[in-house]
Amino acid sequence: xxxxxxxxxxxxxxxxxxxxxxxxxxxxxxxxxxxxxxxxxxxxxxxxxxxxxxxxxxxxxxxxxxxxxxxxxxxxxxxxxxxxxxxxxxxxxxxxxxxxxxxxxxxxxxxxxxxxxxxxxxxxxxxxxxxxxxxxxxxxxxxxxxxxxxxxxxxxxxxxxxxxxxxxxxxxxxxxxxxxxxxxxxxxxxxxxxxxxxxxxxxxxxxxxxxxxxxxxxxxxxxxxxxxxxxxxxxxxxxxxxxxxxxxxxxxxxxxxxxxxxxxxxxxxxxxxxxxxxxxxxxxxxxxxxxxxxxxxxxxxxxxxxxxxxxxxxxxxxxxxxxxxxxxxxxxxxxxxxxxxxxxxxxxxxxxxxxxxxxxxxxxxxxxxxxxxxxxxxxxxxxxxxxxxxxxxxxxxx
Length: 398
Hints:
Elements: H1 2-30, H2 40-53, E1 60-67, H3 73-80, E2 90-97, H4 101-108, E3 113-115, H5 124-134, E4 141-144, E5 150-151, H6 155-163, E6 169-176, H7 182-204, E7 216-219, H8 220-226, H9 235-245, E8 250-260, H10 266-287, H11 291-297, H12 300-309, H13 314-331, H14 333-353, H15 361-364, H16 370-380
Parallel strand pairs: 1-2, 1-4, 2-3, 6-8
Antiparallel strand pairs: 4-7, 5-8, 6-7
Helix pairs in contact: 1-7, 1-14, 9-10, 10-12, 10-16, 13-14
């Protein structure tokens, strides 16, 4: 009788992990779907035609919500101001929260708008709401960047061409700008896997891309109307839900890069993942009540997004599956077969989802750091409070 109960629990555990494994395997395979290559000449001519069709340059408002970001914000803004784009058609605004007088003085000397709110409980959502409540101007689109984000000089030009195609929500390709240790490398690889599964593959079959939190571009009027509906520290997931409820497609642009500083120590990694896991749980509970309506109206994007929020984080998934595979090998040779197959399929999914330039021995050698990071993520489970709306800040290493 006891073995039957253990066997039932083992099967339920396997089904739970297999559901997340099947999801990432499906979209990993979707990402491999053949896409007709475009020759450099065709791409150039297409770009020229887009430029001709775009009779005017769109006006962009660029927001930098910056909480305690003295180390990186000045360089990011100065770099952005070098955009190869009509100067009168974009404006930068920094929302400086809890930054030093020295940093604010330097920012004030730049041709930007500097806002200096002081929130008792800070959050990115509050900073964006504060800016949209104060700023005036006739803008077409708003761009959200993190304080550490750096972009190419043709960032707005490329974004302008995409906006001309009618998209109202665009997620750019956020990628790592540092690889100074094992944690930063693994964080960068993780983000690229996310880009493949939740963005590239989804767009490939007509579904909306996931948002990341920065490198985002929205129709200005839509954003101004909806930003005041944000209530948690998981503002990107809330924005996604609002877009999908209104059936606004989210476009992923892999060729528009936003370089993001990856976390470089275990404490910051734990803080970052705690914020993400809390936001994921909050998002899941917020989305579930709307599922019946989404099913009735055929809102596949919304249903898919809800399933995403129920997935087990990949790093936890692969480590837990491996550990349970070893355990089941000791308990029962018959039970362990399906576990090792699941582990194999998860490994294949992650390998396929990793960009080719990152598939190297040096990268995979850093996987030895993964168990420690996963242990810290498991400890985070005890700290999750789905009703908590406080912003968990992760600092940048000096």
